[in-house]
Amino acid sequence: MIISSLPISIVDLTGSIIVAVLSLFCLNISRKLKKQNPGKMIWESLFWICLTLALYAVFRSAGHIFKHIFFLSGNELISDSINAFTGAVNSFMLIFIAVAAFFFTRVYKFSHHMVEDKGGNKAYSTLTVNAGSHQNPSDDRGVINFSVTDKEQKKLMENQMAQADKLASIGQLSAGIAHEMNNPLGIILGYTQLLLRDENPRTEQYKDLKTIEKHVKSCKSIVEDLLSFARSSKPEREVINIHEAIDDVLNFIVQHSDLAKVEIIKDYDIIIPPILINERKIKQVFMNLIMNAKHAVGKTGSIRVITKLNRSKNRAFIKVIDTGYGIEKKNLSRIFDPFFTTKPTGEGTGLGLSVSYGIIKNHDGEILVESRRGKGSTFTVVLPVNARRKVANQ
Amino acid sequence: MAQFRLIMQNRINIAVFFLTALAWTVISPDPAFATCDFGRPEGVHTHQLAHLLFVISMGILIYRMGAKTPHLSPGWRFFQYSALFFILWSLDAAVVHFLNVQCNIIQVKAVGPWHIKINDCFNNNLLKVFYYLARMDYLLFVPGFIFLFYGLKRILKENRIDLSETGTAGHDLSKEERV
After folding, report:
1. Contact predicate A225/A355, CB 8 Å
2. Which residues of B, range 125-154, sit inside 8 Å of A by Cβ?
3. Are B135 and A8 within 8 A, CB to CB?
């Protein structure tokens, strides 16, 4: 049977070129994936599959192209020797691809188990269904009850409760230590300031004393934050206009910080009535939230403070919205944890939001956060507006 | 106790056998060659085994991915399709090697630069046509790479979205996020 070899040659040559180019593109993408997720085995092993495939594809394609060139130019002997050599290398590369694929399969399996263990990306959850029946005494009709329990959800809640217990114990312990440390720190600060008074500001000793003073002040601020976090006593409250409190905080921040290129937008709902709150504490909350927003925004951006009254729920909503970097999803559940901070060492204690959370909870309110990376964050403080009546009744 | 004695006796017998064999090779050695000599088809068999190993590895990859994740994302689904096309291509290539080189059922001879003559042992035209079509293995290999390329592109996109939602290890968190 004599037949044209042209279709085979065309498919071989064009296929060789396409495969070689595509394999290199694939290698480049897998390299990007590896770079995006450094240290993750799944991307590392995927890269190895692509690398071995690319080597195979390029080698095979080159072999086929040269074979055709030599065959068409009449050098059949060279074509045959190329055939033998590329065959050997191709066998070798095929084994390599197979090994990389085996390895990738194992890594994929383990990484999947790890995702399952972390509770992420689960396609299914385990449900327990309990069923029972009884006779309704009023109309003698049979009633069947079903109760469905999500086991995973239950486990998650148990973990959260255990975490809350642990945090409470840490809180009590640290409050005790903080209380014991507050007095000696006050004494150290007092004596340092006394020594500073008689020291010449140009001397080396003056600088040393200043360093001591700075660090003692930093320690005291941490200790005070801790104490206010752990303090559970009911705050002294008075009826105040929430907008005035926010304005005081904003004025203070504008005067003391560099906010030249940061736009501050206020959108107040003037129908919010005066609320029964501890002014000092609530100002501390807004100070924390606005300072965080300022840090997140950096030098340019905007901070919006919006208030709104929900009449049906008798609640005032105060939102602090920034256009900063936002908070990562994985950190959202931890931002109210004591000592959790993403600021560099020495810049943040990780207590600002914990303290704010405690203050708002003491006011029977809520503090909520919404954030998307790169889009900014929204902190919402929800305060009851009928507290005034409640206290009046008491 | 008797059973223990029996087991020990067996072990001693095995040890004595191997030690005797070792002693015999030392006392009376035969001429030995450093490397074994294989016939010419060794290369073809190795290549065919490599294709077989490749098919098995890709098959396991498809099966394990499907079994572990019933609802695969589009990116990984394309990746699975590419593995399927690679299996088909490898089988096709292995069949061509089997017919042409391994068993010499098909003989191909060039008749001028643009024609080939295909002969087969059974004088079966259907087999010849099958061989002719199977020679164009790139028709299976290229789609495999196209699926792999699109799959990886989708995976990269999915990964970027995932990272933007959950954060990335490659950024300086202290500068970007202040809590």
Report:
1. yes
2. 125, 128, 132, 135-136, 138-139, 141-142, 145-146, 148-149, 152-153
3. yes
**Rounded CA separation A378/A7 (Å):** 64
Residues A211/A213/A218/A220 CA torsion (nearest 10 deg): 160
Query: What's the pTM?
Result: 0.48
- Best probe of the B interface among A35, A59, A105, by most B CBs < 10 A, is A105
Phi, psi of B70 (to 5 degrees): -65, -30
Q: What is the largest CA-CA distance in chain B?
A: 83
- The answer to whether A95 contacts B50, with C-beta atoms less than 8 Å apart, is yes
Q: Mean pLDDT over residues A272-289, rounded?
A: 86
Q: Do B136 and A50 touch (CB under 8 A)?
A: no
Q: Does A52 touch chain B (CB under 8 A)?
A: no
Instruction: Name the region of A27 (left: φ>0; alpha: ψ -120 to 50; beta: rest).
Output: alpha
CA pair distance A275, A64, nearest whole angstrom: 83
Distance CA B158, CA A89 (A): 35
List pLDDT tens digits, range A131-162.
Answer: 666 666 666 666 666 666 566 566 666 666 66
Which residues have CB under 8 Å from A84's CB, separation 6+? B43
